[in-house]
Backbone:
């Protein structure tokens, strides 16, 4: 399960970074409508992955 979580976390990281690189709204303000769910998924998976490493 941890491997699957890491894979999903890394994919969400790549997706968010790719969006962020081309979105001036996300770069200078809060996430745009398209970027907000991408960032939320990244943050949620990051938290889950980091919490799984603590146990």
Residues:
């Amino acid at each position: 399960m941890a491997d699957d979580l890491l894979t999903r976390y890394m994919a969400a990281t790549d997706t968010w970074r790719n969006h962020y690189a081309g979105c001036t709204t996300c770069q200078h303000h809060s996430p745009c409508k398209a970027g907000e769910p991408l960032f939320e998924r990244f943050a949620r998976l990051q938290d889950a992955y980091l919490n799984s490493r603590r146990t």
The chain has a mean pLDDT of 92.
